Amino acid sequence: MFSKIIPLAAFLLATTTIAAPAQTLTIYSPQGGDDRGAFITEKAKEAGFDIQFLGGGGGELFDRLIAEKANPQADIVLGLVQPSMYQLKAESLFEPFVPAWAVDLGADFKDADGNFHMFWQTPIVMAYTDKVTGEAVPTSWLDLDKPEYKDLFTFGPITSQTTRMILAGILWRFADPATGEVSEDGWNFLRAAYASSRVLAEGADYWQTVASGDMPVVLSWYGGVANNAAKNNIDVTFVDTEGGTPMVAESLGIIKGTDDLEVARKFVEWFGSPEFMAAYATRFNQAPAHPEALANSPEAVRAGVEQFHVQPIDWNIASGKLNEWLETIQLDIMP
User: In this prediction, what percent of the chain has a pLDDT beyond 90?
Assistant: First the structure.
């Protein structure tokens, strides 16, 4: 048996014709189509698991899980962040399970009812290349509407969960923390920031555009910036932004209705273990949520979290408003 990553279109066809072999876990994950998915697949096979990934944007996978509620196709969802997971919980999509390693997780990194647990803590960052100097250096997310940054950055596709977390972090600065209602000032700011942003041409290579100097201000997740900057020989400086940096955590949970519940539980136990998390951290420069795994991670990984002041966000409140916010952005703000 072997593991594979399935493109979305092929998966749609496959699921209408044949079922996955017994004991093969189908995992929905934004990590499924890149080096992270290949690494997880390889290590899972060594540990005795046969897995197949359905990759895609976090928003796309979230929408798919909701659409499949009556006939679930996934066994596990891996890599969605807090707002998405809380919304999936509200839809009763999870099979509760508390792995042994969850005992040592902080309260902020696990669902109180055992529906899902978080394994990475990921700063959503602003960074800039050496093409930006002096007074032009950004210091805040609220700089994005200024004329000097026009066309120097992009928000990315709204189906991306990274983009959604960037937008949530911005809007939360203008939100009533008790209700999540965003003020008119917040919507006006975001409208102006979108007007300043640049839309990449279809097929354009984002990191080559950054490397060329055409788009020297980067909005993304910390590990993605660090890895791609190194891969493309780009010098970047991270901004510890005024008002704080959104800190999100990627989670995994078992989907209710899985045909392979015991195998899914064993996979969760293996995947979230401090040993595997530390190995993953070393490979991908991403900070584990588990304290033992973080302690055993490279110093640079620990520094990647510690260099930022965290923006206080009540993700329980924000997750309940996110769909409404995204609808407003799509209908009234995006070009």
Answer: 77
